[in-house]
Design a protein that fits this description.
Blueprint (H helix, E strand, L loop, with lengths): L12 H14 L4 H25 L4 H27 L3 H28 L6 H51 L1
Helix pairs in contact: 2-3, 2-4, 2-5, 3-4, 3-5, 4-5
């Protein structure tokens, strides 16, 4: 419990990431729950970067570590979204993807705002780290938008196929 609010560099941070979050992930059984967990973990990494930036404690090394962990969670989220699409759970995949997009858009704005508010020369590294992290967020936002288009296309195709099957069945019944 004490580790939940820890940040990178804190003594309990490894407990938060390697124990608490892993236990939560173990209790995510469905693909939806797994996607949701990965999205939440990615968002937590962004929150950590934002908190550290506000305190002026976001170093290039810590930011690189956060970026790496963020990317890892994004890969997991995309894998679980792909599983949902593969299982033809297009509506669930679409909903999870919409949540992901909203999260990424909000944090992108926050990261940009934080970077713009850091004007001191000593904050140059913080600003650069925020911009680099925002670049990763933007790349993932673009990927999520593309993924959403594919999901919606797959859903549309499924609906069309179901309509064709139903029409064919009704035609055979009439015959």
């Amino acid at each position: 419990i004490a580790a939940e609010n820890s940040l990178p560099g804190d003594l309990l941070y490894p407990v938060k990431v390697k124990v608490n979050e892993e236990v939560k992930a173990l209790f995510s059984f469905s693909s939806k729950a797994k996607a949701d967990t990965a999205i939440n973990r990615a968002e937590e990494r962004l929150l950590e970067a934002e908190k550290l930036a506000l305190k002026g404690e976001l170093t290039a090394e810590v930011a690189a570590n956060i970026e790496s962990n963020f990317e890892k969670q994004m890969v997991e989220a995309y894998d679980h979204l792909a599983t949902l699409r593969g299982d033809e759970k297009f509506t669930v995949a679409s909903d999870e993807n919409a949540k992901l997009q909203a999260t990424l858009k909000a944090h992108s704005k926050i990261l940009v705002d934080l970077g713009e508010n850091k004007s001191d020369k000593k904050d140059k590294d913080v600003v650069e780290s925020l911009l680099n992290l925002n670049a990763k967020v933007t790349i993932n936002l673009d990927a999520a938008e593309n993924d959403q288009e594919k999901t919606e296309s797959d859903l549309s195709t499924k609906v069309e196929v179901q309509a064709d099957v139903q029409a064919s069945a009704e035609g055979k019944m009439k015959a």
